[in-house]
Write a structure and sequence with these properties.
Number of domains: 2
Helix content: 25-40%
Strand order of the largest sheet: 4-1-8-7
Structural class: alpha+beta
Low-confidence stretches: 182-187
Number of strands: 10
Mean pLDDT: 82
Shape: globular
Distance between the termini: 50 Å
Length: 263
């Protein structure tokens, strides 16, 4: 697979069927180097964040081979890159082949969790109280739920290869992104709330408790308290003290948490 063109645009007003709309579909190729981040491509913005953009839809790719199909259907010769508002025009991608053979794309069953979706017994869900409201709407609620499950003695956190789900993602955060009264918990903000609540960060929890992304080998044990564990725990505690007593002093960044037992 080869990238033929990188295309960007800013939102602009257009008139369509007598109505004024704001769109970013009219993307043009760039000739210079651009930075790609978790939120998209430098110089490009989405007009409607309820359906485009965000962490899970930051970059849109489209196959150039489909240009011929549109040319035939619409009786026009489409050759200019960015035809359907894609960020990346690629030479060829056979979606039908991928969908017909997705079962062949396998991964071992692994320790840890992909966060959502989960399969949890209703009694356990009710016992831990489900997702915590201080993370709503946004990130951090999934690892927090797993931490609450850990505190209640759950030791099976298994990612199952045969359970394949397409995650549309970011629907809630996009819904509230432009609401001046609601602060969506981005990865950084959600991570700080988790740190203040549990005394260490999400990455530490995943690495030393859940052993995420290692091959599944059964129920988890308590973390091995070795030099690496204590070194990383020290770094997390220093970060905790900084966030609590300097960054969020007197809750100036509104990093609210509910009291919990960190033992």
């Amino acid at each position: 697979m080869k990238i033929l063109s990188i295309n960007v645009s800013e939102p602009q007003k257009v008139t369509f069927n007598g109505k004024e709309l704001i769109t970013s579909i009219y993307k043009k190729p760039v000739s210079n180097k651009v930075t790609v981040s978790s939120q998209g491509i430098e110089g490009d913005r989405q007009a409607d964040l309820t359906v485009h953009g965000g962490y899970d839809k930051a970059v849109y790719a489209y196959s150039y081979t489909h240009y011929q199909t549109w040319s035939e259907k619409l009786n026009s010769d489409f050759k200019e890159y960015g035809l359907v508002g894609e960020n990346l025009t690629i030479d060829d991608f056979d979606e039908e082949k991928f969908l017909n053979n997705y079962q062949d794309h396998n991964f071992y069953d692994f320790q840890g969790s992909t966060w959502a979706p989960h399969l949890i017994h209703k009694d356990i869900w009710n016992k831990v109280g489900g997702f915590s409201e201080e993370f709503y709407p946004g990130t951090g609620s999934d690892p927090d739920l797993n931490m609450k499950l850990w505190k209640n003695g759950i030791r099976i956190f298994k990612g199952i290869n045969d359970f394949k789900v397409y995650h549309f993602g970011s629907i809630v955060t996009r819904k509230y992104k432009d609401n001046p009264n609601i602060m969506t918990e981005t990865g950084s903000r959600g991570g700080k709330i988790f740190l203040l609540k549990w005394g260490f960060g999400i990455k530490f929890f995943k690495n030393f408790y859940l052993k995420s992304n290692t091959k599944y080998s059964g129920e988890l044990d308590k973390p091995a308290k070795n030099i690496s564990f204590f070194y990383n725990l020290l770094i997390n505690k220093i970060n905790y003290l900084y966030i609590k007593y300097i960054y969020n002093f007197k809750n100036k960044h509104n990093l609210k948490t509910y009291e919990t037992n960190k033992n």
